[in-house]
Predict the structure.
Amino acid sequence: MHINRRNWLKTAFLGSAALTLSPLEFFARDTPYFQDLIKENSTIRLCFNENPFGTSPKALEAMQKNLSASSMYDFRFADVLCEKIAGNNQVKKENILVSAGSSYLLELITKYVSIDKGHFIIPNPSFTIFEPIAEFLGMSKSVIPLTEKKKIDLERIKKSIQKDTKLIYICNPNNPTGDLLSRQEIETFIKSVPSQITILVDEAYIEFTNQKSLGDLVNQHKNLVVTRTFSKLYGFAGARLGYAIGNPEMIVNLKKLQSWSGAEISLVTMAGAISAMDDQEFINKVLDSNQKVKDFTISEFNKRGIKTIPSSANFVYFSLENYKDDYFKKLKDAKILGGKTYEESGKWTRISLGTMEEMRKYFNVIS
């Protein structure tokens, strides 16, 4: 269906079901409520999947030390950052493209595959923030529901491939469900898909699992591109840093769509990220705390007879079908930002994991 510029802007800026994680989703439902709460320090934010445990102390120290150099272009950091990211992912620097957050990379890859228009396939619900852009650029789409177990339906996606399909998107672990497809499942799927179709695997939450990233497979499967972010585990949601892993030709082509690749990343952010990757103590603390809070959260839901599904991320997907009170009103009255309904059937919603103290307050509110 053709979407004119005005309608696209309305979709992009007023929020749609496709903008799964964007804060703009709240404007569509309750603008004054969101605007008021987001400005208050007392508001508990359980909707953005942020890192409630902060940012690496080593990263913050490096960022502070380099603030005074903010007037300069410092290309050394960009090279060191790419080399370090490449080494951590068992690839070469030529396989890496950094940007100010992984959402920008989803947009960039969408623009790349849409040069000759074509067709794309997405699961639903998932983190499809790029969907309005793809439609605006003239692409058609197929939206594939999750299975009954809330898993991305790879078989149904494969059956939806058309002659002009250019892109298949897989978020793993999936947002908003937290479900994890195994590495073997996805690799088998990639092998079964025509090589001219770009397969975009969004691994924003892969660090919260014990599963190895698919990034080391991009040279073997040249149609695979993996995106990752520093926003979650490393606590860089506001600092903005993400990266794509792809075969060198893919990376070169993506850079051709940028006037100055990587220039949108601040020197301060790059300096912090380099140090963040070495702060294993902080990383271990975040992973351990996240698991404890997640276990507590699922246990509390179970006590209340609220159905959940296993989560491999820093959020939990649950059903309000058996919840008798007005859940969202309770959150609003308590100044808690807690998401939306993603699936009307079963009234499925998501809650981001905060600190243990924040989650105790949350359960006191909804009890």
